[in-house]
Specification:
The complex is a heterodimer. By secondary structure, chain A is α/β, with parallel strands linked by helices. Chain A is built from eleven helices and seven strands. In chain A, helix 9 links the parallel strand 3 and strand 4. Chain A starts with about 40 loop residues before the first helix and ends in a 24-residue tail after the last strand. Chain B has a six-stranded antiparallel beta sheet with strand order 2-3-1-9-8-10. In chain B, strands 4-5-6-7-11-12 form a six-stranded antiparallel beta sheet, covered by helices on one side. The chains are: A alpha/beta, B alpha+beta. Chains A and B meet through helix 6, helix 7, strand 2, helix 8 and helix 11 of A and helix 7, helix 12, helix 17, helix 21 and helix 25 of B.
């Protein structure tokens, strides 16, 4: 196993006291002793969610990244074994090198086909996440204890971090609204609330708002960012008032593929205390149709009574949402930020005064084209 | 379009001629006056109204003024001594000038720079002699002056895309800041401001009609103060509201106007708007085609004439547009620079957003957000700087120290106006105006920037800030003042910016120049930067932390301009590069 500090590859018997024999650096995980991951896998996952150390991210993103990597590693290794076995058996039968009696031949061929089927199933993986949240939480604690907290992880205040942690352990369903999260600081200056924004992104949960704010999305895009559950609490009402000062405000929603998330655009479009049908709301969040690339990263929804269609959810979606949920945290932060930006750019010329909602999400295309190759720079000359 | 220079101390008067020759393109005439231990030189174009036609040399003083006062006077150099000794007149001084006065009796040198910094002024102490000049290259002509790059000034350049404050990227050389008066007497330098912009909100101007009336009066006067009886003037028209407004005011002043705009072919964003403005004002418009190849051809010449490093890609196109204006026979061009700074342009809203969300998830300060707003290398130092260069840069905080006096100023009580004051002092005075001056001066053109008029600027700080940023509408009162004078499509459309297609250029037509200036071999030679990070930019890769592709082009250009500048001004000691007209 490789040491992430010095790169030295060591055997299990050399790693006495869980340390690298070359640099004496401690390992966080020892697979030989039952740990489900290696330090290298964990480190690579952190590099992936942080865009090589240039993007802020939340612990929830790492949870899904570890799941993504484990899913890929386990299922694909098993799939390759099954498919290779099936190919060898069928090859021997077809080439005539294996000539059993007819009855056995049929049975062996059937077994090989069955093996191939299992391989293909493994290749595409299971739908639901495999890694237990509590297990991940203890892995995270272990990592931070040995290697320290990564500098790019979003730093929330301790009270909020506890709530986030509870969610990581207990699951995605928001049980209670978030508490006051902004550290007590200087009050906003008197004239600030008199201005407005060019656009607003309304999220279904605070941690999505955090991701955008921590990565300066508000600053780069003259953008208000709010979570429907009242976050950030100490500026929520101010920002909500400010966004109403711009009659040409472009409004977007960003959310998980959950019933509440998928209804968010319709809800704020129609609600009298939000946009009261007067402003177009463009939904850029995750919906069931986006779930394809996220096999193995879905959550079980557990809506025993089903989800009723309507209020922004169609019949097909209601069926899917009764069984599954897909959190935005399953998408890498870099991808969330870029897709959101592109989605906003694509709607820059919309006439917002028509009201209603538009459902053409930023996750519909898997293209990696950044969409502004001929974008321009430099100042004006007045 | 002129330059001054001089010295005080046991210097050789012959050095003045060398300094004048170093900026020969700033005029077809030169004059020198000296006495033992002091001398002043002046390079100028003869026969231009409102300008001095030589160095004043009489019993009491030597004096020269590059540029002109506003309103113009017949001989600024003669007027200068009277101004200096009259605090009331000094405090009200306006115009585009850099001036020097040697008081023979008091043995005192006084240097003055205009309120907003259109004209440059740099100085250095060498071998017991105090030297000053309009341009850095003039100082570098001083025999024996050590020419060493200043890594801290370069560090600041890499954040701002220009060198802010008093720093110049040559050790020992300093810049006199705009609106300041410097005196050199008995071997000591003292610098004091004669002009400070302050917020003084007039509640009566919350009334829209009164605010519009004030802006209309002041803009009209600002243009009138900058007219010297020219038969025809040029106008750099971007298609935005600021330059279109200047066009309106020039037409109202009854001046014959010829407009110029840039044509980037398929990359052009605002040329249709510029054409619409020209049509609505009934003024002829020349589209100046500019390509990456065009900019590549003038790169070295541009660097030399800019004098200081400027990392904004608009300089090349401006230089070519000024050339077109000169070839059309004009002596002066008006422009709309300053509208964003005075009336709350595009930087306002991001800073408002930053202020709102400050402290929500990270402990970022207003200062840090402002530094990030320049979109260069702030926060990317670990990736960009080589360990050797990082050591030269020294302790952290030098860039925050540049900003803090502005952002924490008590000269404004409202958030928006504090940001405006910072923007005027930094971006306006130390970037926009100097680069406009230099790109036009080298063609013998006088740049006129009425938005940076003192009375207009003071009026803008009497306006309640909500008259500038009204909800999400930027430059609200300026737009109201131009209503019914320009098409609504020009006034009320969303801002797109006169963009230079720099990403396409740096990855296409300018790829060879980029490779030469900041390719692995060049980076290795200079030793300042890491190749790995710059290689990502050179390859045009999609950066994880950047949603806008254009930023990589801006960053490449900023680095390339720095290296080109180091080659001309450090390696080449500021001498005119070969092959330049």
């Amino acid at each position: 196993m490789k040491c992430i500090r010095c790169g030295h590859d060591s055997k299990h018997k050399e790693r006495t006291l869980g340390q690298c024999p070359k640099c004496n650096g401690k390992f966080a995980f020892e697979p030989q002793d039952g740990a489900p991951v290696t330090d290298t896998l964990f480190s690579n996952a952190i590099a992936a969610v942080s865009g090589g150390g240039r993007i802020k991210w939340g612990v929830e993103h790492l949870y899904y990244e570890i799941n993504r990597r484990k899913r890929r590693r386990l299922s694909r290794t098993w799939a390759v074994i099954c498919l290779a076995g099936a190919a060898i058996i069928l090859g021997l039968l077809v080439s005539g090198k294996l000539v059993p009696p007819l009855g056995f031949k049929i049975a062996i061929a059937a077994a090989a086909i069955g093996l191939a089927f299992v391989g293909l199933r493994s290749w595409f993986g299971k739908k639901l996440v495999a890694l237990d949240r509590a297990q991940f939480a203890s892995m995270w604690d272990r990592w931070c204890k040995v290697h320290g907290m990564p500098s790019t992880v979003i730093k929330r205040n301790p009270e909020v971090e506890t709530q986030h942690r509870e969610r990581i352990v207990k699951g995605p369903a928001p049980a209670v609204p978030f508490g006051k999260r902004r550290p007590a600081g200087a009050p906003l200056e008197a004239d600030i609330a008199d201005y407005s924004f060019d656009r607003a992104v309304i999220c279904d949960r605070a941690r999505t708002a955090d991701l955008l704010i921590a990565n300066n999305f508000h600053f780069e895009n003259n953008c208000a960012i709010l979570s429907i559950d009242g976050y950030p609490e100490d500026v929520f009402d101010t920002v909500k008032t400010m966004i109403k000062r711009n009659p040409r405000l472009h409004v977007f929603t960003l959310h998980d593929a959950t019933p509440d998330g998928c209804r968010l655009a319709t809800k704020i479009s129609e609600a009298p205390d939000w946009f009261a049908g007067k402003t177009l709301v463009v939904d850029l969040g995750l919906r069931p149709r986006h779930a394809g690339p996220f096999r193995g990263l879905l959550q079980s929804a557990g809506f025993a009574g089903g989800v009723a269609p309507g209020l922004g959810i169609d019949a097909g979606e209601s069926k899917w949402l009764s069984q599954y949920a897909l959190e935005l945290a399953a998408v890498r932060p870099e991808d969330v930020l870029k897709r959101l930006f592109r989605g906003i750019q694509a709607h820059a010329q919309d006439d917002v005064s028509v009201g209603g909602t538009s459902n053409c999400g930023s996750f519909d295309s898997t293209s990696s084209d950044n969409g502004d190759s001929s974008d321009t720079g430099g100042d004006s000359f007045g | 379009m002129s330059a001054i220079c001089g010295f005080v101390g046991p210097g050789d008067p012959g050095v003045i001629q060398r300094m004048l020759d170093a900026a020969a393109y700033r005029g077809d005439n030169s004059a020198i006056a000296s006495e033992p231990s002091a001398g002043i030189g002046y390079r100028f174009w003869g026969g231009r109204p409102g300008k001095s036609d030589g160095v004043r040399d009489d019993a009491t003083a030597l004096a020269a003024v590059a540029g002109s006062f506003a309103p113009p006077v017949a001989s600024p150099a003669t007027e200068l001594a009277r101004l200096i000794d009259d605090p009331a007149r000094l405090a009200a001084l306006d115009g585009n000038f850099a001036a020097a006065n040697w008081d023979k009796n008091r043995r005192r040198l006084t240097l003055l720079r205009d309120p907003f910094g259109v004209r440059g002024m740099v100085y250095v102490m060498h071998a017991g002699v105090f030297y000053f000049a309009s341009e850095l290259k003039q100082l570098l002509a001083i025999p024996g002056l050590p020419i060493e790059p200043d890594p801290i000034a370069i560090h600041k350049y890499l954040t701002f895309s220009f060198t802010p404050g008093e720093d110049v990227p040559i050790k020992g050389v300093k810049r006199l800041l705009p609106g300041n008066i410097a005196t050199w007497q008995d071997g000591a330098l003292s610098i004091t401001p004669y002009f400070t912009l302050r917020e003084a909100i007039d509640p009566a101007l919350a009334d829209q009609q009164q605010a519009v009336r004030l802006v209309r009066e002041r803009t009209r006067d600002a243009v009138a103060r900058r007219l010297n009886g020219e038969a025809e003037v040029g106008l750099f028209l971007s298609g935005g509201v600021d330059s279109a407004g200047v066009g309106v005011w020039l037409k109202e002043a009854g001046v014959k106007v010829r407009a110029f705009t840039l044509d980037f072919g398929r990359h052009s964003i605002e040329k249709e708007q510029a054409a619409l403005v020209a049509k609505s004002l009934d003024i002829p418009l020349t589209m100046v085609p500019v390509s990456g190849e065009d900019v590549g051809r003038i790169l070295t010449e541009l660097i030399w004439k800019l004098d200081l490093p400027f990392g904004d890609p608009v300089t090349g196109p401006l230089y070519l547009m000024a050339k077109a204006a000169r070839e059309a026979g004009l002596n002066c061009v008006f422009n709309g620079e300053g509208g964003d700074q005075l009336f709350g342009g595009w930087t306002s809203k991001p800073m408002v957003a930053a202020e709102i969300y400050s402290g929500v998830v990270a402990d970022n300060t207003r200062v840090e957000r402002y530094l990030e707003s320049y979109h260069r290398f702030y926060g990317l130092e670990d990736q960009l700087y080589s360990p050797e260069f990082a050591k030269l840069v020294g302790t952290p905080g030098v860039r925050r120290a540049v900003l803090e006096p502005y952002l924490a100023t008590t000269n404004a009580e409202t958030f928006l106006n504090r940001i405006r004051l910072t923007d005027i002092s930094l971006k306006g005075s130390q970037n926009i105006l100097p680069r406009m001056d230099r790109t036009t001066q080298c063609w013998g053109l006088d740049a006129r920037t009425p938005m940076f008029d003192r009375a207009l600027a003071e009026a803008s700080f009497r306006l309640p800030p909500q008259m500038k940023l009204h909800g999400a509408t930027e430059k609200y009162v300026l737009k109201l003042s131009l209503q019914n004078k320009l098409p609504d499509e020009i006034i009320w459309r969303r801002k797109y910016g006169m963009g230079v297609p720099i990403r396409d250029w740096t990855l296409g037509a300018l790829r060879g120049s980029i490779e030469d200036l900041i390719g692995p071999a060049a980076l290795n030679r200079r030793g300042y930067f890491r190749n790995e990070y710059i290689d990502e930019l050179r390859q045009g890769r999609d950066l994880p932390d950047e949603v806008r592709g254009r930023r990589s082009g801006e960053r490449l250009w900023t680095l390339a301009m720095l290296e080109a500048w180091l080659r001309v001004f450090v390696d080449g000691k500021g001498r005119k590069p070969e092959g330049i007209a």
